[in-house]
Each structure stands twice: as C-alpha cells, then as structure tokens.
C-alpha cells in the first residue's frame, strides 16, 4: 500500500548528530509512496553525504553550495510551493531559533519562509540546549504559529548526557507524517469541547490543592479534533503547555470555574470529552491570611466536596450529544469505570491504569481501555496523540455506527 502516493514531502536536514537518522526517515517516506525532496544545511553535509539522501529519495538533494548553480537549487521556491508537508529532522536549536524569528540566511530557512505547507519539527539536541529558556521560548512561538513538533525523546544522548533531546525514531516521525497527510476531515461541521489539566483549589493566598494532571491528553485530543476538521473549544486548567493553535482556549482555575464554563458551553456542542482532572474537594473556607504553622501541631484541613462536573452536565445531555469521560484508577479498574460511566451518563469512558509505567501523568504515552456500557477494548501502549485519534474514531462510530 502506498498511502502517501501523490504527496510531496520536503525533508530539511540540519546539522545534528541525528542527521544520520534522516536517511531512514527518507527511506520510510519513499516506501509510503511520497515524492521526497531533501534539503541539507552545510553543517548537515558534514554529518551525512548528500549522495546517500539523493539515492534514497531518488531526487536531487538541494544543498547550500551555490558554487555550481543547479536547476534544482534555483527551484527551491517552487519546491516550497509544491510541498504538502515540510519535515525538519533533525531540527537543531539553531534552526528552531532562526525559524521562530523569521531569519532566512540559507536555502533551508529561505524555503521555510516561502512555504505555506504544514511544518513538522523533530528537535534533537543536548538536554541543556533543549531546556534552555531561549529554545523553549522559540518552540513556543513556533507551536503557537501552528508548527507541529514531535519529540524529543529522553534517554542517552550522543554527548553522554541523559535527558530529553534525542530525536524521535524515524518510524515515529514517518507515522506522524502519514497521520498529518491522511487525516480524515470527518469532524467537519462538528463542535467538540475538550477539558484538560488539573484544577487548583486555594487554601490561603499562597497555597492550593491540586493533582498531577499535565493536560497532555486533553491537548492531544484538541489537536486531533482540529486536524479532523472540528470546531474545538479547549477548557483548560493551569498547565505548562503551549495553547492549541486554532482552538478556542478557555482558562479555568477551580472545579467551580470548570462547572460554570461547561454549563455555559456544553448545550451548543456535539461532543464533550472530559480529560480534565478536577479536584473533588475544596477548602470549606479560604483563609484570607497565610496559614501559620503552630509549633509541632499537625494541621487538619477542613474540606468540602466539589460538584461532580461530568455528572452535573450528564443530567442535561441533549439527544444526539456524545459525552466521553476519563477514569484514572489504581484498583478495581473495570468496575470503577463502569460505575462512573453510568453515574455520569457517559457514552464511553477512557480508563487508565495510572500505576503502569508509560500510562497516566506527565508522559507522552498512555495505556488505555475503552469501556462502553456492554463491552470494552484494551488498547496497546501508544502516543497520547494516537490515542486521541482512537478516541475520536470511537466517537465517530457511536454517531454513525459502521455497517455490520
Ligand atoms: N470529573 C468531573 N468532576 C469532578 C471529578 C471528576 O467532571 N469533580 C470527571 C473527570 O473529568 C473524568 C471523570 O469525571 O472525566 C472521572 O474522573 P475521576 O477523577 O477518575 O473520578 P471521580 O468521579 O472523581 O471518582 P474517584 O475520585 O472517586 O475515583
């Protein structure tokens, strides 16, 4: 099967050690049937020979050596226009900085300014460079502008450090390209509301109660729904993630804020996916002054229950609306999930066993089970972005069941 036949992909290779992995990426994209064009920066050419990528892509490789001006070198603007997708793998801190600020001092960055195609970046660099506020700020600028990023993964880096900075595996990047180029627009005309992140319940002017929710799952669902053509509202608790470009962002802090935001918006939407982790309790009274410690005495917090938002909106579900919930459990998984499914009037629930490695909070993967009223599907460990698409497939299936 050649799922990318007829698609043109421009692969930009910059000068990171991971440049050698671009060879496998190009080869995988060719196997998917794409017309692949490679553009290399001069530092990338110190890592990999252009001829290797030329053979693998079966196209001339555009490089920065203007000594002999080839026709394909002048044609790079035409390539910028023809590309259905531009992938930069590896993307160094330097190219990320240039892109964020619109610099165009070589062929690749010039081409990137001249393209309107979606851009996928696979960052690869030393952990400290990746975590440097400048790089993080540059990535944030790009993501806010609609650039898609994949990785970096954590692990051993070429420099000997351990931490985030490894380029995602070529297989994963190729999979993301496939997803980006073949995303069905099957949510066109649908309004999807997604909740994400934790809530915060203040105790006094400087302290609050919260939980480990990172918001990643909800943000991935919002991105997937947008890619599939939906009109998306993302109601989000305080998280450390860049906003989702193209979604209406609604920021909330407490569970009560979430409730109010939902009551106002839910009647107008088709699908509600509740990936947020609202706090179940709040302080009976929020102290106006900072709580002082009292010698060696313990402190008992006086908490009162918050509203169960999912249950409250579930009671007013309109015909045709689809409500999806999440359940983070550590024991009696299926029974607990089914109880929540019925109690909150949900169509299905995405159950996470948060005790498993690779599931739950602050990781990019999840291991989930889709629990329906009378059946369930166990899913393998997968990226949150992929799980997001599986959840949307399930929603689609309920609204228009596949013919038997
Ligand atoms: N939820 C909600 N309002 C709450 C608590 C949870 O809307 N106050 C929603 C979550 O967004 C999620 C689902 O209910 O979609 C299940 O959340 P979870 O924390 O697993 O369950 P709880 O109902 O809080 O039950 P428990 O804490 O007893 O496991």
Structure, described:
By secondary structure, this protein is an alpha/beta fold. It folds into two domains: 8-182, 3-Layer(aba) Sandwich (Rossmann fold), CATH 3.40.50; 191-282 and 301-403, Rossmann fold (3-Layer(aba) Sandwich), CATH 3.40.50. The chain has helices at 21-31, 44-47, 50-57, 71-74, 76-82, 93-101, 107-113, 127-131, 133-144, 170-182, 216-227, 255-265, 309-314, 333-343, 384-399, and strands at 8-13, 35-40, 85-91, 119-123, 148-149, 191-196, 201-204, 207-209, 231-236, 248-251, 271-274, 281-283, 303-305, 322-329, 348-353, 365-366, 368-371, 376-378, 382-383. The chain has an eight-stranded mixed beta sheet, sandwiched between helices. A five-stranded parallel beta sheet has the order 2-1-3-4-5, with helices on both faces. Strand 14 (322-329), helix 14 (333-343) and strand 15 (348-353) form a beta-alpha-beta unit. It is globular. The mean pLDDT is 91. Cytidine-5'-triphosphate binds next to helix 13 and strand 14.
């Amino acid at each position: 099967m050649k799922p990318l036949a007829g698609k043109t992909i421009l692969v930009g290779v910059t000068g990171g050690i991971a440049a050698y992995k671009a060879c496998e990426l190009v080869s995988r994209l060719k196997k998917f049937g794409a017309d692949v064009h490679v553009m290399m920066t001069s530092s990338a050419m110190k890592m990999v020979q252009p001829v290797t990528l030329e053979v693998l892509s079966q196209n001339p490789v555009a490089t920065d050596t203007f000594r002999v001006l080839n026709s394909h070198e002048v044609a790079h603007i035409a390539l910028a226009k023809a590309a259905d997708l531009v992938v930069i793998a590896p993307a160094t801190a330097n190219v990320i900085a240039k892109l964020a600020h619109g610099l165009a001092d070589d062929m690749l960055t010039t081409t990137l300014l001249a393209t309107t195609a979606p851009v996928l970046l696979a960052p690869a660099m030393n952990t400290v460079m990746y975590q440097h506020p400048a790089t993080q700020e540059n990535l944030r600028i790009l993501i806010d502008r609609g650039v898609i990023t994949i990785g970096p993964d954590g692990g051993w880096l070429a420099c000997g450090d351990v931490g985030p900075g490894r380029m995602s595996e070529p297989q994963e990047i190729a999979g993301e390209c496939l997803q980006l180029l073949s995303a069905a627009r099957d949510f066109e005309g649908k309004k999807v509301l997604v909740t994400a992140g934790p809530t915060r319940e203040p105790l006094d002017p400087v302290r609050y109660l919260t939980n480990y929710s990172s918001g990643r799952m909800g943000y991935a669902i919002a991105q997937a729904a947008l890619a599939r053509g939906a009109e998306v509202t993302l109601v989000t608790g305080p998280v450390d993630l860049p906003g989702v470009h193209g979604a209406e962002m609604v920021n909330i802090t407490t569970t009560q804020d979430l409730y109010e935001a939902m009551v106002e918006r839910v009647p107008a939407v088709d699908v509600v996916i509740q990936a947020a982790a609202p706090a179940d309790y709040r302080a009976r009274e929020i102290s106006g002054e900072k709580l002082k410690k009292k010698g060696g005495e313990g402190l008992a917090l006086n908490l009162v229950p918050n509203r169960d938002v999912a249950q409250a909106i579930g009671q007013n579900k309109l015909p045709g609306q689809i409500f999806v919930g999440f359940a983070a459990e550590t024991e009696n998984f299926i029974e607990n999930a089914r109880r929540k499914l019925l109690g909150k009037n949900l169509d299905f629930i995405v159950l996470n066993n948060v005790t498993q490695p690779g599931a739950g909070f602050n990781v990019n993967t999840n291991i989930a089970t889709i629990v329906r009223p009378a059946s369930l599907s166990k899913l393998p460990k997968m990226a949150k972005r992929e799980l997001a698409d599986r959840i949307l497939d399930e929603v689609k299936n309920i609204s228009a069941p596949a013919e038997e």
